[in-house]
């Protein structure tokens, strides 16, 4: 087995990462920390451990998707909705991992493709969501939407969110969109402050292809999992679809998604 440990800045988190790394090294397990992960050659038993909150887990997940290895989230942040283990259980979780006492849940992610001038293409993958947001100088974002090559309509709003099932409990949820169970092979489109109240969220199947043509005069911020990746210009086209790769999440026991909703969000009693 090989273990990757990923964390962001923070003295306490760094100390925990080093203690965890020593824990595995004493058991003759090869460990890769942060930047070392990029040069690591994963095998079928490699696992990335994310130390931090949900933001850290998202960054670690991108590494996991790229490397084709599963990710275990340990919550050293605040909410920790995406993470599976609390801080007090770090070393118990490490023991269970070595025993093989875990299962892997596969989650759909999204691929976004920008088609710019001269046929230039930019491809991105999102674990949570893609977000398009108007500039401060633009009163509203204006875009034309196509589904499976067929025109769906033109829409004015402050922006648009295209979310995975994992991302349905993030930005999309705050906009009034439905919660989607993690195992569902779907994704959703949600408008941010739409000009028309009839512009409600839409859920697409994993086989559907969504395309947006930008009609705004000012540049539009194109974001992937909370980070801007580029600016979109007038007449740029972006397409979205379920990616042909998946995020694999490590769970140390049978996890009830609704228990997490109740504990973290107070969804039920």
Describe the protein in words:
- The chain is α+β, with helices and mostly antiparallel strands.
- It has two domains: 2-102 and 252-265, 3-Layer(aba) Sandwich (Rossmann fold), CATH 3.40.50.10330; 109-244, Tumour Suppressor Smad4, CATH 2.60.200.
- The chain has helices spanning 11-25, 54-67, 90-99, 171-174, 257-265; strands at 2-7, 30-33, 47-52, 71-75, 85-86, 103-115, 121-126, 129-133, 141-147, 150-157, 159-163, 186-192, 202-205, 210-214, 220-224, 227-232, 237-251.
- It has a six-stranded antiparallel sheet, with helices on one face. A six-stranded antiparallel sheet has the order 13-12-11-8-15-16, with no helix packed on it. Strands 2-1-3-4-5 form a five-stranded parallel sheet, with helices on both faces.
- The chain is elongated, with a radius of gyration of 20 Å.
Cα radius of gyration in angstroms: 20 Å
End-to-end gap = 40 Å
Helix tally equals 5
Output mean pLDDT: 92
Task: Give a topology summary.
Layout: E1 2-7, H1 11-25, E2 30-33, E3 47-52, H2 54-67, E4 71-75, E5 85-86, H3 90-99, E6 103-115, E7 121-126, E8 129-133, E9 141-147, E10 150-157, E11 159-163, H4 171-174, E12 186-192, E13 202-205, E14 210-214, E15 220-224, E16 227-232, E17 237-251, H5 257-265
Labels describing this entry:
Rossmann fold; single chain; six-stranded antiparallel beta sheet; Tumour Suppressor Smad4; elongated; 269 residues; alpha+beta; 2 domains
